[in-house]
Amino acid sequence: MESFFSFILYPVSAILWFWHKVFGTVLGPDNGFAWALAVFFLVFTLRVVLIKPALSQMRAGRKMAKFAPHIQKLRDKYKNDRQRMAQEMQKLQSEHGVNPLGGCLPALLQIPVFLSLFHVLRNFHPGAQSNFIFDKAGVDSFIQADIFGAKLSNWITQPATDLALFGTDRTSMMIVGIPLMLIASVATYFTMRLSVKKQTDASMANPQSAMMAKFMMYIAPIGAIVSGWFLPIAVLLYWLANNVWTLGQQHFLTKKIDAEQERERQKEIEAKKATPRPKPGQKPVRDAKAETSAEGEAATATATEAKPAKPAPGQRPGGKPGGKKSQPKNRPGKQASRAKKRR
Known about the structure:
Elements: H1 6-27, H2 32-49, H3 51-66, H4 68-77, H5 82-95, H6 105-122, H7 136-144, E1 146-147, E2 150-151, H8 160-165, H9 170-197, H10 207-228, H11 233-274, H12 288-306, H13 332-342
Antiparallel strand pairs: 1-2
Helix pairs in contact: 1-2, 1-6, 2-11, 3-11, 4-5, 9-10, 9-11
């Protein structure tokens, strides 16, 4: 793993080192809260970098929600032709300028960071001469740091012998670890709940999407509690800071996007008001070019209708097929003269 994530292991450890230097200067290099704040600000530094992709993700989600009914129509129309349905959906997304994979970018970028932090923390162990950016003094400082007796690099389910090697015990680990797990779980629940709440009825029209969103709203907090027993205290601090940041960021970005949409709506209303309307009793003003074009088309259509059709082969102009003469209509004057001649 070290060779695979080496391109990100060193930057992550460098950010952690920098913030520890900042808070260690104030609180002391071996202070557990200095290390905890360093982990918090490691999260905040990374999340600030990801604010722009997160904003793009939310904007893309709003756009997707707008034409969700069109997507559902495509699914119903091409339910038996998946290739055609995929082509039409891709065409629709390109027309609206939406990249469905763009919404996954913030979450995908956090995965290697989380794994890298986990690996860096696991490498803080007694006897280590260095740990990426940290020298031996930095390693010893982290090992000696604790929060209410719980060591940052240890986890609750670790064997008692290993905990004793670091100078702690399971009770101290549980006193600190369990509250962190519960707070992280609650923050995860409210984050997922806010995400589901902001989805429109159109985007939730698909029963599978609605069911999956509600399922994740409850399963993610449970996952935070279960996995917390096997994660170092420093990783739980990372998880807590990340979830709290996400909750606050969603509130901030949601208000920002709502304000943007409200401004766009007001612009549309003002544009409609600016359009001149005819006064009572006055005919609407029409475009002269449009009227000329319409009159020309009407004249052409009239001339086409008035033009007599060409006679079929063997048919006289104005006659019936077969060359037969049309029978003269019976007129009253001619009928009377014929009757006199017969008499």
